[in-house]
Design goal:
It is a single chain. The protein is of the alpha+beta class. The chain contains eleven helices and five strands. The protein has helices at about 15-25, 35-40, 45-50, 55-75, 85-95, 95-105, 120-140, 145-160, 160-170, 170-180, 220-235; strands spanning about 5, 10, 185-195, 200-210, 210-220. The protein is elongated, with a radius of gyration of 23 Å.
Length: about 240
């Protein structure tokens, strides 16, 4: 005898059961309002044909929620990192390629509702659907629950966030190694400094064998040097 899943007095149909099980397994969450999750997985190529809203609005919401959750986490996790570093780390974690990869690992395409007769980039659809599911979880379960789920998923994907930070702020070391290897003299020169309210803004420039290269600015000399190092690595083709 087939098992039954009953939510708020309603027995789910076969498609809803499949999606319910998928969300429970991959997001550690038991949906209450299944219509939200049906919508989250419905691409616009199929929406009108089955009279379900496409997932575009939920994708928009999920993108904003995901961005806020990751920004909040990084702000608390790395108190000594400046705005530029935090922004770049967030961009590495929350980007289209990363979301598509996570969506692919979850095999979201197996529960996607789309027109399979049309040539569609499923990898892109999985990343979009992932954001839409986040939006659905937020509406169905609230911010606190969504935050726990998202951090669990991201941590399982990236592991040690310190490694992500180290990779991001290591431009200066990379440039130093490159200059040593090529027997070149590396120097950082402070070009100017400005006080903006209670904070200072520093402007640094890299010189290699007395020739100017990358420039950078930051709230500390160290962060400005990192920016200048990054730009220099880009200019010499080592980024």
């Amino acid at each position: 005898m087939p098992f039954k899943i009953i939510i708020s007095g309603f027995t789910l149909n076969k498609e809803e059961k499949r999606i319910y099980s998928f969300i429970k397994r991959n997001f550690f969450y038991r949906p209450k309002n299944m219509s939200l999750f049906m919508e989250a997985l419905c691409h616009k190529s199929k929406a009108k044909k089955i009279n379900i809203n496409s997932n575009e609005r939920l994708e928009y919401l999920g993108d904003a929620i995901l961005d806020a959750i990751v920004a909040d986490f990084l702000f608390l996790e790395f108190p000594n990192s400046d705005e530029g570093q935090l922004t770049r780390i967030k961009a590495k974690i929350v980007n289209r390629a990363s979301l598509s990869m996570i969506g692919g690992e979850m095999e979201i395409r197996k529960v996607l509702i789309y027109d399979s007769s049309r040539p569609i980039n499923l990898s892109s659809l999985e990343g979009n659907a992932l954001e839409a599911i986040i939006g659905a979880i937020f509406l169905d379960g609230g911010f606190v629950r969504t935050k726990k789920i998202i951090l669990k998923i991201i941590k399982s994907h990236y592991g040690d966030f310190t490694a992500v930070l180290k990779q991001e702020i290591d431009f200066k070391s990379k440039l130093h190694i490159w200059c040593q290897k090529n027997r070149l003299h590396l120097e950082y020169r402070l070009q100017s400094e400005e006080k903006k309210g209670e904070k200072w803004e520093y402007f640094m420039e890299v010189f290699i064998d007395n020739k100017p290269y990358g420039k950078g600015q930051g709230s500390t000399k160290k962060s400005a040097e990192q920016e200048a190092s990054k730009e220099t690595l880009e200019l010499i083709g080592e980024f």
